Amino acid sequence: MINFNAPSDYPLIGKQLVQVNRVINQRINTRYPELQDALRTMASHGGKYIRPTIVLLMARIIDPSLKNERLIKVAASIEILHMASLIHDDVIDDSPKRRGAVSIQSRFGKDIAVYSGDLLFTVFFDLLTETAADRASFQRNAHAMRHVLNGELGQMAERFDIHQGLTNYLRNVNGKTATLFWLAAGEGARLAGATNRQIFCARSFGRNIGISFQMLDDLLDYSSGDSLNKPVMEDLSTGVYSLPLLLALQHADAAKKLKPLLAKKRQLTADDMVTIQQIVKASGALQEAEQLATKFTNKALQRLHELPAGPTRKLIHELTISMLHRNK
Amino acid sequence: MINFNAPSDYPLIGKQLVQVNRVINQRINTRYPELQDALRTMASHGGKYIRPTIVLLMARIIDPSLKNERLIKVAASIEILHMASLIHDDVIDDSPKRRGAVSIQSRFGKDIAVYSGDLLFTVFFDLLTETAADRASFQRNAHAMRHVLNGELGQMAERFDIHQGLTNYLRNVNGKTATLFWLAAGEGARLAGATNRQIFCARSFGRNIGISFQMLDDLLDYSSGDSLNKPVMEDLSTGVYSLPLLLALQHADAAKKLKPLLAKKRQLTADDMVTIQQIVKASGALQEAEQLATKFTNKALQRLHELPAGPTRKLIHELTISMLHRNK
Fold first, then answer.
1. 10 Å Cβ neighbour count for B141?
2. Do residues A46 and A1 touch, judged by C-beta distance below 8 A?
3. DSSP-based three-state secondary structure for B149
4. Most buried among A120, A264, B152, B324, using CB within 10 Å?
5. Which of A186, A241, A231 is nearest to A209 (CA)?
6. Is B38:B104 a contact under the CB 8 Å cutoff?
7. Chain A residue with minimal CA distance to B27?
8. Mean of the pLDDT values across residues A97-105?
9. Which residue has the higher pLDDT, B112 or B184?
10. pLDDT at A327 over 60
């Protein structure tokens, strides 16, 4: 959580993050004062700005003296793309809350929320027309946006499919979550004048922490507390099977108990879901999920250590490790 | 309504429209076979392809021999942008039907529909990265996309506002409908090597027929049959006041009768709505709306006649006139 009033709390790039936040606020511009306020509130409160942070730190690791407007705008554009997908996700999940505040859809209704997300896509698009150096740069961004959506759609296509295995899960997570980390890291490094090999390492770092980030998110949903939290209950009842459940299904004994429950699909009761959580926990799937996430984190760190040493790399390393130990 | 199996039914540009349809089908590509089929069905059935038609005819009026892949892709990209906004509109309206077929949202649910629209935005974006000649070209498209959404959002911001007058209506229609006509006409002319003055005339033609197109749509909603049709009832109950109602509100006597009814807002009954329709009809607002639409059509035709004479211009003229006499 970033406090934009105390940028110095945030090491190395605090002031730049304040500038990113300012660009986002300036660009959120619509003839609908209430909505504009709500979007600006969303942009300034509760967001962790992980993606802009990656852009800025990856630029800094290559060129610690780099400070330019384009870098700030690129960082802002990726956060805006992320915000757009959050808003549309909330429409789909009927989420009452987002970033600690009331979600756009629960405050304004789904109609405004759909258009607000669309509006942010256009802001993203606008920023891109200002910052893209060449056609290839547009293409990377266009492909990233498509991969995010194909990940979301893939996840939906495989709902209630107990045979989907890890390949599909990884493909979808790679799209819906890791793509923006990949984009953020690669664009940051590129803007700072990185070599092709450095850009490759930055992107690979981004993709791998993106995947471990999502895996840990899925893991925390299952492990926190004795009762299932709301996101995982929603996922179960809408047939979105995340990593711990998919791993548990690979154990014959757990699968045998899980299958009749999952066969109820949308008719799962709250008790059923608690039973599912217990079976998943007892199967050892949570430890396996953590091991898998650690594998991706380690891969990311390996790539990171091909990039220039210094205080920025040290900070990125620390942030990556602390991500592994976060609690929800 | 275009029959892609009989391209020769469509004068001058029938074969090119078939190519546009083919590009759209190729680009609708997702790991979700059912959704892909539904989107391809939407792309091939029932659509009037008005925007691609404008692109192709405006290119042809400048250079009748022009046939290139970029032109087809640009025409496809604008239709895809239009399809994306139709899908999101259906989410908002909970529309069961679209283009004669079941709408994406009623067949797959709003979750898939939101992402499908987003996916089409990315296809639009992809096509643009392939066709845009320069940064200015991206900017025109980005601005167009934003204007469409600001029109939609503006319309929502002014819901239930009986004092909004015609200025707001025109601004919103200019955004939500006329922008894509403006874009289609301008890009078509530009691709065919038009002069700046010709591009200006093409765009002005597009914007003006876009506005008259929307006005006639609003008018037909009120005038068709003795009972109000579904779209206008939805508009009334959600507070979207279209041209005939806004014009009727400018007549003191009609306004006096309308205001207490409109004050009921979302509580309007079916009988109330029929009464509103009768008041609007009796006020002469339908004739006024038609006159206003004709003004915009005439302005469009005036601009058209600054462009090179020939069979293409004649055809555009005829299509424009027939639009004025269409029935829903």
1. 25
2. yes
3. helix
4. A120
5. A186
6. yes
7. A146
8. 69
9. B184
10. no
Contact A61, A316 (CB under 8 A): yes
Residue A328 has pLDDT above 60, yes or no: no
Region label for B109, one of left (φ > 0), alpha (ψ between -120 and 50) or beta (otherwise)? left
Separation of alpha carbons A231 and A254, rounded Å: 22
CB atoms within 10 A of CB B271: 9
Tens digit of each residue's pLDDT (9 = 90 or more) over B199-249: 999 999 999 999 999 999 888 888 766 565 666 777 888 888 999 999 999
| Interatomic CA distance for residues A44 and A47, integer angstroms | 7
3-state secondary structure of A98: strand
Cα–Cα distance measured from residue B326 to residue B318, given in angstroms and rounded to the nearest whole number? 12
> Is the pLDDT score of B64 beyond 90?
yes
Residue A144 identity: A
Neighboring chain A residues of B110 at a CB cutoff of 8 Å: 91-92, 110
Q: Are A122 and B132 within 8 A, CB to CB?
A: no
Q: Is the dihedral of CA A141, B144, B96, B153 positive or negative?
A: positive
Question: Which residue's entry shows tokens 């239009």?
Answer: B82
For B103, the 3-state DSSP assignment is coil
Residue owning tokens 């600690």: A100
- Those residues whose C-beta lies under 8 Å from the C-beta of residue B186, and which sit 6 or more positions away, are B58, B140, B199, B202, B203, B206
Please tell me what DSSP assigns to residue A309.
Answer: P
Closest CB to B126: pick one of A91, A122, A142.
A142
Q: What is the DSSP annotation of B162-180? A: TT-HHHHHHHHHIIIIIHH
Task: Please tell me the distance from the alpha carbon of residue A122 to that of residue A118, in angstroms, as a whole number.
Answer: 6
Question: Which tokens sit at B205?
Answer: 């033609």
The Cα–Cα gap between B210 and B320 comes to 10
Q: Please report which residue ranges of B94-134 form alpha helices under DSSP H.
A: 104-108, 110-131
Inter-chain touch A32–B126, beta carbons under 8 Å: no
Question: How many pairs of residues across A and B have Cβ atoms under 8 Å apart?
Answer: 128
- Distance, CA of A169 to CA of A84 (rounded, Å): 23
* Chain A nearest CA to B150, separation (Å): 7
Q: Under an 8 A CB cutoff, do B30 and A153 touch?
A: yes
